[in-house]
Write a structure and sequence with these properties.
The chain is an alpha+beta fold and about 90 residues long. It has one domain. About 30% of the residues lie in helices and about 25% in strands. The chain contains two helices and four strands; from the N terminus they run E-E-E-E-H-H. A hairpin with a 4-residue loop joins strand 2 and strand 3.
């Protein structure tokens, strides 16, 4: 299995992960939901994503997911509150 291509990763406004591969003319933004531990591909339908881009999109999702996890964006908010305020 080949390794995924090198993507550029940019964090914007502490809510967006922009994954791009400029030489392929590819960019997608994943936005974190403030109420739930999830990412939403913000601009997929606005761009020209044809079948040739589906592999890049899947690879970009994996990169965004790994990045979001490393930033703690996908931690369960309820678990965060429990850790911040342990029962006495």
């Amino acid at each position: 299995m080949s390794s995924p291509p090198e993507f550029a990763i940019e964090i914007r406004r502490d809510r967006d992960i922009v994954i791009s591969k400029p030489d392929e003319g590819f960019e997608v933004t994943y936005r974190r939901d403030v109420h739930y531990p999830m990412l939403i591909a913000d601009d997929v339908l606005q761009n020209d994503f044809d079948e040739s881009k589906t592999k890049l999109l899947a690879q970009a999702w994996k990169v965004a997911l790994k990045t979001a996890k490393s930033l703690g964006w996908l931690d369960d908010p309820k678990q965060k509150r429990k850790r911040a305020h342990p029962a006495a």
